Amino acid sequence: MASDEDQAASFSAEQYFATQPPPPSLEADIVRVQEFVLRQRAAKRKVVLVTSGGTTVPLELNVVRFLDNFSAGTRGATSAEYFLKAGYAVIFMHRQFSLQPFSRHYSHSTHPFLDFLDVDAEYIEVKSAERPQLIEVLKAYKQVQKAGTLHSLTFVTVNDYLWLLRAISKELYPLGRNAMFYLAAAVSDFFLPRQKMSEHKIQSGKGSLHIEMDQVPKILKPLVEEWTREGYIVSFKLETDNALLIPKARAALARYGHQVVIGNELHTRKYQVVFVSPANGKPAQAENEEELDPSKFSETWLRIDLAVNPAKEIEEDIVAELVRRHQTWAADSS
Ligand code: PAZ
User: Fold this and answer.
1) Is 74 in the pocket of ligand 1 (CB under 6 A)?
2) CB of 233 within 8 A of CB of 259?
3) Mean pLDDT throughout 257-278?
4) Which domain holds residue 83?
5) CB distance 2 to 189 below 8 Å
6) What is the spatial distance between Cα 184 and Cα 284, in angstroms, rounded to a whole number?
7) pTM of the complete model
8) Ligand 1 touching residue 236 (CB < 6 A)
9) With a 6 A CB cut-off, is 269 part of the ligand 1 pocket?
């Protein structure tokens, strides 16, 4: 998982892009993003880039094996729906086959399509208990299709992710403060450079496997400093130890100077998160995690009670809070 402030990167972003090849579909993907952004600018809509799902790290050029992570893309897909509802145009950059807005309600593992249909002779109908939700989801989906406010594109590897993030950020540059980056994807910290990969399937005859991976460049740095002009940047920090959430989030803000880190712990992420931001809107200046002055940061916990309201999604509150903060940010051009 990404831990943006842990150690110095072995590859700078510049070295990374100079040595690792772009995905073959990049150019075509970006032409479609350009068209989408132009339409949203003409309609004077705010645009949010939502990244979602996990990245893979291939171990071979002819890929048989790869490292992956747990992320199903729930956070990203759910948040994208709430951003659309709030009037944003959404670029949904997600891991291929991970959850997507709207269709996520009918995921094959949790709510399979065939189970909510009945058949009577040659007629197929939706079971009555399923209709209210389906009608609501379908209406919202059709409305978004008609308005043309959702653009989806996919990545698989961490390399795809990095190239796409850089290219899309550059397309959002002209939007200035009307762009938001909502970086919920679970991005690998480590990768195997192409130059070190075995061409063919790694053979098992030689006993145990030792692989040395390089560190993925700290991509928030060029995103904040070069690729975007005043975009509102929200990164996520996942930990399995609650005690690390706030110090790690503060360290990321101090290092990169962006607007918000949303901290979440693996097992409680569906019902509590913490927003960490620089106090008074000013980025905190410090390099060392232990020496960071707590008074330079603000923390806001969002919690939902699933026992009281099991259907509530925390992303509704996350997005409402961000929309409010982004509004203030966009209005303040100083
Ligand atoms: O995809 P999901 O809903 O299962 O999980 C979401 C999440 C935990 C990957 C996301 O909230 C997050 O923290 N993303 C950044 C993870 C990281 O530190 O790299």
Assistant:
1) yes
2) yes
3) 96
4) 4-202+211-331
5) yes
6) 23
7) 0.94
8) yes
9) yes
